[in-house]
TrEMBL record:
Presence of the UniProt keyword Signal in the record: no
Domain of life: Bacteria
PROSITE patterns the UniProt entry points to: ABC_TRANSPORTER_1, ABC_TRANSPORTER_2
GO terms assigned for molecular function: ATP binding; ATP hydrolysis activity; branched-chain amino acid transmembrane transporter activity
Species name: Allorhizobium borbori
Annotated keywords: Amino-acid transport, ATP-binding, Nucleotide-binding, Transport
Name the record gives this protein: Branched-chain amino acid transport system ATP-binding protein/nonpolar-amino-acid-transporting ATPase
Amino acid sequence: MFSISGASSALAAWPKCRRTPPCAKPIWEFDAMLTVSNLTAGYGVPNILQGLDITVRPGEMVGLVGANGAGKTTLVRVLAGLLPARGGSITINGSDTTNVPAHARPKLGLAIVLENRNLFGELTVAENLRLAERAGANRPKKFDIPRIVEMFPAVGEKMAVRCDLLSGGQQQMVAIARALLLQPDVVIMDEPSTGLAPKVVKAILEVLRGLCSEGMSIVLIEQNIGIASSVTQRAYVLSTGRIVHHVADGGWPAFLHDPHLVSRYLGQH
Ligand SMILES: Nc1ncnc2c1ncn2[C@@H]1O[C@H](COP(=O)(O)OP(=O)(O)O)[C@@H](O)[C@H]1O
Ligand SMILES: [Mg+2]
């Protein structure tokens, strides 16, 4: 059996984010929040992403796991509008977003926390947050700065500090806070746990779990399947630019106990 690395062992016992049983929800709530259909993209020849199909429903936390170089960040860049799709489509909240420019995607309900966090390092935490709040001003308001401070007290303590002086964990919290102030319906997070102390990872995942139970859709991109399996309901496994496996709701234990699957797709054992 492979080992669950990093913070994940402490998280293994957590209850996962669960949707309300289907029968308790009106039918329109089952419409997908995010759909990726037959998506291809890349930097040169051949394509890196080779026909991806992904669906995320409202209130789901879905994992996207894959080894280093599998194409996870390339997908994030296409979802963000930073790299064009070469084929296929992206639909957010029923709107075809495939060719919408990056700056307009948050208005459709999409927020992305990039791998490098992409904060304005020379601006303070408060300034970064206010910029995001302004950018999200036309969306239905779910988050404001006081609520963010309640969710992340460590962010509240650093409001007047320049972002480039923060620790990695603090920067990650500010990056997530900034994404939330865009008032999104769906948040994509590219490896938010990388390089962070287990305690910080636990705090971040606890916030994500709370968001998901309020109805937000989250795509958690992770190389660490211990973490992904501790909080996501189900997951797509990406390998060399293809979805090679789907871990269905309730399917994590079987996947984790299959050493062939884990080592073949994730290079972990
Ligand atoms: N800017 C780029 N130009 C060319 N190739 C790239 C670029 N960024 C990533 N790649 C390549 O795309 C593949 C997928 O990378 P990436 O999406 O970053 O994977 P992951 O996030 O899963 O580690 C890798 O082979 C990587 O070398
Ligand atoms: Mg990456």
